Amino acid sequence: MPRPLANSPKPNEALVQPKFSPNRKLIPRTYESLGDLVISVAGLLKPPERLTVSQAASKYRRLNNPGSYSGPWDNTLAPYMVEPMDELTNPSLKAFVFVGPAQSGKTDSLLLNWLTYSVRCDPMDLIMYSPSMAAARDFSIRRVDRLHRHSPEVGERVRKDRDADNKFDKQYVNGMLLSLSWPSSTEMAGKPIPRVALTDYDRMEDNIDGEGSPFDLASKRTTTFGSFAMTLAESSPSRSLEDPRWISNTPHEAPPTTGILALYNRGDRRRWQWPCPHCHQYFEGEFSMLKWDDLGDDVSSAETVRMVCPKCGQDIHQNDRHEMQQWGVWVKDGMAIDKSGRLYGKPYRSSTGSAWLKGVAASFSTWKILVETHLAALREFEQTGNEEPLKKFYNTDLAEVYIPKSLEFERIPEHLKARAEKFCEDEQRVVPVGVRFLVATVDVQKNMFVVQVHGILPGSPFDVVIVDRFDIRKSKRIDDDGDAHWVKPGTYIEDWDLITEYVMERSYPLQGEVEAGRRMGIKLTVCDSGGKEGVTATAYNFYRKLRSENKHGRFHLVKGDHSPNQPRARVTYPDASKKDKLSAARGDVPVLLLNSNVLKDSLSHRLDCIEPAKGMIRFPDWLEDWWYKEVCSEHRTPKGWENPSHSRNEAWDLLYYCLGACVSKLLLCEHLDWNNPPGWAAEWDKNDLVHKADAPQRFAQDRISDYDFSKFAARLA
After folding, report:
1. What CATH number labels 53-235?
2. What pTM value is reported for the model?
3. HSE on the CB side for 484, CA within 13 Å?
4. Domain residue spans in the chain?
5. Mind listing the pLDDT tens digit for each residue in 263-293?
6. Fewer CB in a 10 Å sphere around the end CB: N or C, the chain?
7. E-state strands within 38-168
8. What pLDDT is stored for residue 578 in this prediction?
9. What is the CATH number that goes with domain 424-692?
10. 113-120 and 53-60 helices cross at what angle (nearest 10)?
């Protein structure tokens, strides 16, 4: 082997540059032969290794955490991080977003292992943004410098020049540059860079100097690198819920917030699911699945914690979690997984990958610690009213959006929708099993009738189930073009005849008897008689018309009454003839006055009930999101129930109309003997309202004009 010249560096110093001094003359390094030069730089000429980020971490990362874990990086400790790590080199993705709790290993896995991969396997410039300059400096000292110190295979690649390794810039012998920065208009502008990472994203401003979000500004720096570009954002969520009445459109959609969860919604929305050790069915672990015994103190209570499988109901203990983690799978939105671990379905497609890990799955925390923290935060709130510990627990420990206690009194539509039941496979309107009779309620609008049909089930108090909801918009009045006019309830009494045809004479198939089976008619229809101009007069006249046809027993007018200290429901006969001889109220039309605040209080409690035969409100699965928003439109204030946003509230009003009719003397549901009821409230086989599909309803009135009196006379003779 040729020997180097006398003034040449030692072999292990071939890459070391002399420190710069203005008074020092640089001496060029010389080699005896070309072979010596090649040998000295052979390490730089090695081709990159074909490793994934997780594989590079296993090979090159070393951890030194006294009192915790020290040794080689072990992917089995947090297996949920393997896929997110490896997706950082997926050429089909432009970005990756990870939402996770503290003690999940997300920062070490995503940022430091990505750096390890970049240094050892695929050198490209990388910039890491922290929320502030101080945070960037701390990240450099506590994270990056320790990585270099405890992982020799990475640290040896750092250049030894005086200016090549400072707090905010790290240069490596392979030409790669690591920059540690923070969000600002100047720091996020500049030359293109292929790889960008943002840590603790929710601690950054949403808008950087009016130029846009940190994520969008960072992504713009990578656009010129094509399939090599990658933008990473990771954080636990800390932003407030934008809309407490939000209802998810897909199973994996995050609530409407800004920050990291908004970025998560842009992506393919992966959730970590693991198999139950008993039934082997996959599910996503939630804090609500943890159960514990109340033993008087937080520590003792937390020691009894276990998870209840949502599939089989068996208890799962903490020591089962590690094995469950090894079989865990990231499931994209739109997909599902069977008990053998096979994914099926059509995934939500996006050029951004995103994953959301819940706190119960965090490997470096325990369920016992979670329960202790929760109980301590809850106790502080109860004693002082301070919600900050609870907010920190939900955001940091569980990686979930915190709903303030002040909003718990506001009903959230999503929670109601989650209780929906399937009564018929094809979403057909049917009478669910157990319903004894039907009550229809009508809300009169300017240009339509809004109709809701309810089934009443026995119980103490009685249950209510939604059977149908529809609008009557078009009248039978035809314009010159042959099109139907809009309904005008305040103008045309003939438009009210549509209630008779489309509501009072309506019937529904019984559950399980849809095909040519039996049907149930409507026992009572109640209709709003006030509100819009002209409605009261036409409503009264319609009732008089029904009375002339002997159909008024199946129809009744209602009106809300805000007067305090009044019964829940009382029948009155409005009479304004003494004041105005032309008034529609002449003391001959009964109106059911409903104490709206009292009945709405009752309805509110019923909506919270989840036990059958205890006053529960039940929902069919065909109801759409807007219906649940209508039910949650009003809020209780010291003045009573109000609709501050003036949003649509028909579902809410129609439900309380139904309750008012049921507790009134019209039906007396609270006093019915359900074991020996009247015929219209009996079980299906004995019910007067139940008839064959091709048979007329038993309570329908015969038309006098259609009756053959000759047969009657012949029978008398």
Report:
1. 3.40.50.300
2. 0.67
3. 11
4. 11-45, 53-235, 260-416, 424-692
5. 999 999 999 999 999 999 999 999 999 999 9
6. C
7. 62-64, 70-72, 95-99, 126-129
8. 53
9. 3.30.420
10. 80
